[in-house]
Amino acid sequence: MGSAGKVVELNAGTKIPLVGLGTAAINQNPEEIKTAVATALEVGYRHFDTASLYRSECALGDALKDACLKGLVAREEFFVTTKLWSEYLDDPVSALRTSLKNLKLEYVDLYLIHWPLRLRKGSSFPIPKEEDFLPLDLESAWKGMEECVHLGLTKAIGVSNFSCKKIGDLLSHAKISPAVNQVEMHPLWQQKKLRDYCSKVNIHVSAWSPLGGAPNAQGSNGVMDNPVIKEIAEKHGKTTAQVILRWGLEQGVSVLPKSYNKGRIAQNFQVFDWSLTAEDHSKISRLEQKKANRGEEVVNSTTSPYKSVEELWDGEI
């Protein structure tokens, strides 16, 4: 499959590579991150996903700068996504400038609101305290995101962990439509309703933790251990991870597997020259659904804008 099958055009006009390397690894050794990025570039990856929260921006930036200096890749040949953390919703422009300094880049390709949540600076992580929550004004935050586009700091803007309703609310006032909604998605949390809605409003869906392990303690390897997935993998002579990622691609989303293992980084990119069967899809569609990251840590009955998990996801759980 040529490069045309490895990217998709966003509503902002930019093209997002369909397989990216995730770097959600808090406390990860920077040298390991740099080695993983170098390996990924060599394999063929051109999409790298980070966030200010992950603390991987500096290591990613170092690796990309090194690759550019060596002539291995040019800036216009790779796609970088980073995210606005909840402590900086009041000033997306300044937050992105900080991220760009960390990344050693003049612009990113995609900038996302990480969560529909506003926290005070220096808030407790991963479980905010009651006093950490601040009033949420997504309309104002989105204006700041749009300003990032106008200033040339990012090619496209979008959201992460947004429900259909929250996207609809955003679209009611947005002058620039979100290009992407990055969400948990894998065979055990297939997000069909959300994907159908995003398709209708021309918003691309990108899957974080496409292999089923959330980037925190709530994560589960249930997807990788699923007997149905294992059976399909054996039939095709593929790894379980390859089957899961291929399934995501065939749903029309981009996938962001995270690995710092050289062999697995290469294997996870070998998903473009084969397909799943209709029977495979039928079996996967019948798997029991369970969201790994429910966001319970940002729910409380007093200061959070969300008094229940159901309210956080607008019933889409």
TrEMBL record:
Keywords carried by this UniProt record: Acyltransferase, NADP, Transferase
MF annotations from Gene Ontology: 6'-deoxychalcone synthase activity; oxidoreductase activity, acting on the CH-OH group of donors, NAD or NADP as acceptor
Class of this enzyme: transferase
Organism domain of life: Eukaryota
EC number(s) recorded for this UniProt protein: 2.3.1.170
Active site annotation, chain numbering: Y54
Residues that, per the record, bind substrate: H114
Site (Lowers pKa of active site Tyr): K83
Transmembrane segments: none
Domain NADP-dependent oxidoreductase: 19-287
CDD domains in alphabetical order: AKR_AKR4A_4B (cd19124)
One Pfam family in the UniProt entry: Aldo_ket_red
Family, similarity comment: Belongs to the aldo/keto reductase family.
Name the record gives this protein: Putative 6'-deoxychalcone synthase
Organism: Picea glauca (White spruce)
UniProt lineage: Eukaryota, Viridiplantae, Streptophyta, Embryophyta, Tracheophyta
